Amino acid sequence: MPPARRPFQNEKQDEKIEKMNERTMNAAVLYGKEDLRLERIPIPTPEPGEIVVRVTAALTCGTDLKVYRRGYHARMLQPPIPFGHELAGVVSAIGEGVTQFAAGDRVVPLNSAPCDACFFCLHNQQNLCDDLRFNNGAYAEYLRVPARIVQKNTLLIPEDVPFAHAALTEPLACVIRGLEEAGARPGDSMIVIGAGPIGLMFIHAASLAGVEVLAIAKREDQVEAARLFGAQQVLRIVEGQDTVAAARALTPDCRGADIVVEAVATPATWEQAVAMVRKGGTVNFFGGPPTGTVVALDTNRLHYGDITLKASFHHTPATCRTAFDLIASGRFLAAELLTAQAELIDLPNIFHRMLTRSLTNTRDIKTAIVFHSELSTHNSELEAQALPALS
Ligand SMILES: [Zn+2]
Ligand SMILES: [Zn+2]
Which ligand has an atom closest to residue 315 CA? Predict the structure, then answer.
């Protein structure tokens, strides 16, 4: 007997399934506390004013780790939700009315854009916008970019800047805003408490701006990294040692630093920051501890020391551009911040490992998740990028 022909209907079904596969993509979805899953979800299509970006590099970030550990972010996301916010990619589709960008453009779509109409926007505090439009979902093959971010906060990447470097724009923009808020000027002395990814970016951006940085780090690999990124002095935390006294002893005339940046996010380091600043100096509490955290500060020291306390959240379109220009200039050691490269499928394991990172002693700053054929392109881009040594 000849083999039975496949019924017509099945062929149709196969075709349908194939079409469905074409229209879905791999994406990381956060379901809650330490629950990150890879799923196939539909490839987004752009509404009027929107673009869709084929992601080529997405970077792991301390904020994502915080959200992963807590299972939510008060301002940015509630699960289940596509995850990740530092990325670069290529425009794959444009919505009706988009004239700024075309398919094939290399872009960094930032993770938010302000309304420019509310009280805070009109008072030059767009980072505090009442209607900040966030966008998440960088750990996916494609990302839809809302119209407002297309209009106000999507940047074109020059040909000679690797995607993964350009993806550093978001965290660096937060750091640049922190430096601006602290009023850092060339020749100032600055203590940076913490040498994680954000602490290292502060150290680097400040030293490139001519600020003399004393870094306070916990692990040996962080001490080395702090030096690499331009810290003139590094104090390694030693059990039982008075960190405040040791830090002050390294400042000019032991009077404390002009500026202290806290980049650890614990009550103890917030309190240390205030104790390390000089009279008339400025503290920037950059690290955000969990809601409800309370710290104890000496009012006498604050009042008679004439100390300015600041905290910075997020970025503005202007600091995004400053950060982007710094990366594009080649002066910023972007490649040194990207200590690992992986594929999307590894992401749940990477986050799991990041939870215990402080127990290891190897330099592990940021991981670039790379997509499609970018794995090889990215390698050659990194090799081709010969960055000047920090002077
Ligand atoms: Zn980030
Ligand atoms: Zn606003």
Answer: 1
Q: How many angstroms separate the alpha carbon of residue 64 from the centre of ligand 1?
A: 7
What's the pLDDT score for residue 356?
80
- Which of the ligands is closest to the CA of residue 366? 1
Q: Please, which pLDDT band fits residue 80 given cuts at 50, 70 and 90? A: confident
Question: Could you check whether the bond before residue 289 is cis, i.e. omega within 30 degrees of 0?
Answer: no
What is the pLDDT at residue 187? 97
Distance CA 69, CA 66 (A): 5
Q: What Cα–Cα distance (Å) separates residue 339 from each residue in 177, 275, 300, 352? A: 25, 33, 44, 17
Neighbours of ion ligand 2 (CB under 5 A): 114-115, 118, 121, 129
Domain spans of the chain, in order of start: 9-168+332-384, 175-311
- Please tell me the distance between residue 197's alpha carbon and the centre of ligand 1 in angstroms: 10
Report field, pTM of the whole predicted structure over 0.70: yes
The average pLDDT across 274-278 equals 98
What topology is assigned to 9-168+332-384 in CATH? Quinone Oxidoreductase; Chain A, domain 1 (3.90.180)
Least Cα distance to 308 among 269, 271, 282, 272 occurs for 282
Q: What are the structure tokens assigned to 194, written together?
A: 């913490």
Please state, in angstroms and as integers, the Cα–Cα distance from residue 98 to each residue in 74, 146, 148, 246, 347, following that order. 32, 11, 11, 56, 33
Judge residue 254's burial from the number of C-beta atoms within 10 Å of its C-beta, 0-12 exposed, 13-18 middle, 19 or more buried: exposed
User: Amino acid identity, residue 34?
Assistant: E
Q: Does domain 175-311 have CATH number 3.40.50.720?
A: yes
5 pLDDT band (50/70/90 cuts)?
very low
